[in-house]
Amino acid sequence: MSTKGADQGGPKAAPADHEQGASAGHEQGAPADHEQGASPLPPHAEPSLKGPAGDLLLDAARGHFLQLKELAGPARRNAPDAVHQMRTATRRVRSVLKAYRKLLDPPPDLLQAELKWLAGELAAARDAEVQAERLRRLLAVAVEDQADGEARGDGEARGREQDGEARGREQDNGTGTAGSDDGDGTDEAPGNARADLGRQLDRQLERRVVPGAPGTAPAVRRLNAELAERLDAGHRQVVRALNGRRYRRFVKDIEAWLDQPQLAPLASEPARQVVPRLVGRQFKRLRAAASSALAAPDGSEQAELALHEARKRAKRLRYAAEAAAVLSPIGAADLGQAAHEIQSVLGEHQDAVVARQLLRRVAAKAAYDGEDTFFYGRLDALEQAAAQEAVSEFQTLWRRFPSAKPKSWDKPWKPA
User: Could you tell me the pTM of the whole model?
Assistant: First the structure.
């Protein structure tokens, strides 16, 4: 393990060349990763409490990178969850390099920039998957609420003795057309969020539209078309990036860096002395970000930005602690799990914020075209409630979040 510095932080990355990658139509002809010049990584030392801290950093970065590389093929083919997992692996490499930055001399800033680029290229497809799946659930809830409300209204108007007749009419007129078949899979669970998911949204959901719900069917069709376009465009972007020269150069550069890492003298010190301090830095940063989020006015733009920042800090602490779990399976794992819970609930909040932005943009287009926007308002209200619930859950989780950072992992670390 070398601790020598160098003139630059890692191998030089190639410039962006998105337009030079292959198009989505040529994805089947994309070369496999082993055909792109990638070579097996050399053996490495297993991390331990008494061993060098640098071993832990390299072990974590290597593992996440290998996962990233293996997922490139499935991501090109748009296999279920492949883009999500590849983006997560990319973020893990980047977070580990940032959290353990003091072990590197110089820091691999060019590699960090390429990891950021790759995560960005995967973002559109993954974000579209999240929003498409979220919309499926949201539409089901909204339409079900409307159906319940319509049934209650009919019951009050006609009296208890006519309830059965009213329910029969609601079933016959579920799509606004007499004689529709309700036994055609309208209650099936939604499938995987993939590139064709958006095209399936309205087929079942429009059958459940209640007569008199203003603008529901046009809203479903418009949202369906918007997300289908985003899913397809996101996948094309993934294929272009992964078939391009910039990605192939990135793979070679990070393999070269892992083969000959440039480490600081601190990386040679025992992991049990160094790693808790570095994880502790991420712990303190999360606490500062969470304090800012909790102090911001509820529902304000300042609060949204602060909650988003707290989520990113929780994610970095989580990945740093999970990397350290090989040293302290109990202490580090507990801290990583606590950070994961914070990250998850704040991720739910962020997804709701993004969904509301999407709904408002699509509603504005609908209004311009003269369509009724009532149903968009119902969906927006549901997302607003989801965001508020996530904030409330975050506040509850934070009250029991560990109050003391790890000091040493010679013994299992226990939160105060």
Answer: 0.75
